[in-house]
Task: structure prediction
Amino acid sequence: MITVSALPKDPASVTPIEAADLLSQLAEAIAYHNERYHGQDAPEISDQDFDKLMAFNLALEEAFPHLVKIASAPSQKVGTSPNAAFGKVTHEVPMLSLANAFNDQDVYDFIERIKRFLSLDEAEEIILTAEPKIDGLSLALRYEKGVLVSAATRGDGTVGEDVTANILVTDNVPKKLIGDAPDLLEVRGEVYMDKADFLALNEAQGAKGAKIFANPRNAAAGSLRQKDARITKSRPLKFFAYSAGVYKGIAWHKHSDFLDDLRAFGFSVNEMTQSCANAKELIAHYKMIGEARATLPYDIDGVVYKVDRHDYQTRLGQVSRAPRWAIAHKFPAEKATTIVEAIDIQVGRTGALTPVARLAPVNVGGVIVSNATLHNEDEIKRKDIRIGDTVILQRAGDVIPQIVEVITAQRPDTASAFDFPHLCPICHSPAIRPDGEAVRRCSASLSCPAQFVEQMKHFVSRNAFDIEGLGAKQIEQFFALGWLNAPADVFALTKRFDDIAGLDRMGEKSARNLITAIEERRDIALERVIFGLGIRQVGQATAKLLAQHYESLPALMAAAHDAIDPDSPAYESLITIDQIGAAMADDIIAFFKDVANAKAVSDLLAEIRPITPEKPSADSPVTGKIIVFTGTLATQSRSEAKAVAERLGAKVSGSVSAKTDYVIAGADAGSKAKKAEALGVTILTEDEWQALITA
Ligand code: IVH
Result:
């Protein structure tokens, strides 16, 4: 398949015979990469390379119009055909794509073209909005009389996939418009995932041996396009609104007014949107956004300029499936070339062997990078990465560095393929890769020092035992000294005052503080203990469910033991706990079945006094109600109020929706109270709330 490096330098130098051949090759390659990107959420080439293929193709189409086969020409297509697994939605107004500007000159040319088209005076200023180009996937939301009735992806621009069921379970998309809603309004925008959420998702996916997403965009697309809406619900998707499809009973003169209305209807509209009067101002805003890019919580890949006046937009119309009144000014890729000096294996808490490329340090978009994760052994094979190779590195969505490809032309004779070890590099036990899984794991469990140390770091971490002064460094040091060989040993540290005080950079005060911090954790919430055990797949939420259900560790252990028999009532009871499926149940059972784990837990129990969570009372006036606190409460902190409400069986949410039962408004309650009012949700004062729960 044709690649960027195989393209001739200048489209103008191509002969008609070459052009015909190139056009057909480009059509094939572009269709293929489109399908990888939109259809499978698994692109093989960078967005920049894709843009280059598209730009070259467009230049050829313009130079040789008689050679363009309309039906198959890439310029006539947007995206890809909808996947058959989803229902289809025909867009009443097609969802267009955008032409690109790659440099300042392209921006000046764009403005000039518009003025020429509208026969405006050279000197006349034309207002455009400049807004970040969010790197997600576009979505069309249809509201009838203010109620969300359908959600569809772009698909091929004419027919998209029906993802209504999935969007209905996400938090960030209004299900009902606030205020006076028009008869019909189709709002379009971008579904995306924050960088931090993407990293956390990949970490969880990695731990499960599930699919690793290349970047936040793919993660968002993969999360939205799920057959099972429950999976979508568990993924933190967000939405920025930025354009309209069909609408009736409402109209706007300007794009900027439309965006203001979107905000009032309850949508997130990007705050970095700005009106500009000329190319210079657009470019200045582009630079400003470019500088902010690395610090934004989400990925952007450029800035979109749109003519503000709607009458101008209508007159300008479209060409080649892109509007004449808008353009995307793309950011250059943050890429660099470097050398793979070595490949190391890291052993994680669950024994997963993760290959890490050690790189000659290189600056990628302002960050010095010297490591890149290679995810797993298949990834190394797929990209054919060898030690000594020169590779192209990219910061995927500004976050984790990624090896995009090997420059095979620069491969030295001495480059050596990496033999993925079948033994744990730390404890030399067999590392096993179960059939159908991507991850190879050290089989030694906690007798492997690497797994043990990582597990101990987890045990004392913030959401588990949360022991101040006992961080990763101390864990490694105490382990090396032989003081930590089991979780219970953390509590035995309290008898080592002199030893600890005598350590370098410790002293009596720090030793005393550390021992106090440990002592304070002998009384500890049961769910923190369960979470701290590091049972595979058991995160904080599951730990809480288990704590509520079994109420003590001995009860949980006994149940897990009885549940070894899948026909037992104990097994049945375990998997009927909301959100615990068979795979998770198997991991819980396997954990306690392991004799060493069972002993570690019993020893730990001799040191601590877990606190059973209070049962939510079944018959409080707020049982099962969804409530939201807003503003400053006079009598208690927000977290305390939340805890009280939860104890009474209420669900406390952070945002108001039509499903909210009560909003408790303290002093200076702002937008949430307003939203509640608009949705007709009952608003209580703090006193009314107190009266309700003490009734
Ligand atoms: S406007 C007719 N505004 O970029 C104009 N698009 O490359 C339609 N995108 O399909 C799009 N942020 O998925 C617009 N602020 C923004 C955007 C944006 C991201 C995406 C969108 C579009 C693609 C075109």
Remarks:
- The chain has five domains: 1-65, 88-330, 333-444, 525-611, 626-693.
